[in-house]
């Protein structure tokens, strides 16, 4: 049990838990922004294009139960928009990382030419051969 507690303490101390918690909180806030975007801006536009259909209000009565399939469609649209935005964010971050990695890579050194001593020795050898 002591080893398990030490591993847990090490896990928390590394910052993984804090990073994850921050991600969840920001993700929740971002979800609210996207839901507002879909509900208040994109939903009405899509509804107009589809002939004035309000997705959130779509439902069907089956016996005593009311199936609100419009809310399901709305959730799918929310998910697709979130996925698309995250895709573009990850793509942008990867592009920045790649650019930074290329900047940090050392340029390959040009092959060293002959030294001054080697050139003088070659010139001397040519003069002796003439």
Describe the structure.
The chain is mainly α. It has one domain (2-105): Orthogonal Bundle (Non-ribosomal Peptide Synthetase Peptidyl Carrier Protein, Chain A). It is 74% helix and 5% strand. The protein has helices at residues 2-13, 16-49, 69-104, 116-129, and strands at residues 60-62, 65-67. Strands 1-2 form a two-stranded antiparallel ribbon. Helix 2 crosses helix 3. The longest helix has 36 residues, at 69-104. The radius of gyration is 33 Å and the shape is elongated.
SSE order and pairing:
Layout lengths: L1 H12 L2 H34 L10 E3 L2 E3 L1 H36 L11 H14 L1
Antiparallel strand pairs: 1-2
Search tags:
mainly alpha; two-stranded antiparallel ribbon
CATH topology name, in short, is: Non-ribosomal Peptide Synthetase Peptidyl Carrier Protein, Chain A
Number of helices: 4
Strand coverage percent: under 5%
The parts where pLDDT drops under 50 for at least 5 residues are: none
What CATH architecture would you give?
Orthogonal Bundle
- The SS-based structural class is mainly alpha
What is the string of SSEs from the N terminus onward? Answer: HHEEHH
Helix content: over 70%
User: Given the C-alpha coordinates, what overall shape results?
Assistant: elongated
Main beta sheet: 2 strands, antiparallel
Beta strand count: 2
Mean pLDDT: 81
* Rg, Cα atoms, Å: 33 Å
End-to-end CA span? 89 Å
Q: What's the structural domain tally?
A: 1
The CATH C-level class name: Mainly Alpha
